[in-house]
From TrEMBL:
GO biological-process terms attached to the record: cytoplasmic translation
Stretch list, region Disordered: 1-72
PANTHER family, A to Z: ZINC FINGER CCCH DOMAIN-CONTAINING PROTEIN 15, ZINC FINGER-CONTAINING PROTEIN P48ZNF
Descriptive protein name: Uncharacterized protein
A GO CC term attached to the entry: cytosol
Organism: Minutocellus polymorphus
The organism's place on the tree of life at top rank: Eukaryota
Basic and acidic residues bias locations: 62-72
GO MF term set: mRNA binding
Length: 103
């Protein structure tokens, strides 16, 4: 029986979607900064361009941003729970293990 590998269309589609979104954001930045005088020399203009970039790149779907934030919080909480469990186990069984090793 020959196993058939599933296609990777979902991953490719997601990657292409991200690339397309990034290109779209780059295009928006170019459009918003078009025509600025002394783009490469003036410090104030550079700061304005950075502000535009930040606003464009950080804008997006608020639901998606919130989901990402929730996922990060859950990851941190899980890590804290795991560390607390390990500390508790060390406190409970650490003394017993040390006593066994000394004997």
């Amino acid at each position: 029986c020959i196993g058939i590998m599933p296609t990777k269309t979902k991953k490719k589609a997601a990657a292409e979607g991200k690339k397309a979104a990034q290109k779209k954001k780059d295009k928006m930045v170019q459009d918003k900064t078009f025509g600025l005088k002394n783009k490469n020399k003036s410090k104030k203009v550079q700061q304005q361009i950075e502000g535009v970039k930040k606003s464009v790149y950080n804008s997006g779907d608020p639901k998606q941003r919130k989901a990402e934030e929730d996922r990060k919080k859950a990851k941190v909480a899980a890590k804290a729970r795991k560390k607390a469990l390990k500390d508790e186990q060390d406190a409970l069984f650490g003394e017993a293990l040390l006593a066994v090793q000394k004997s």
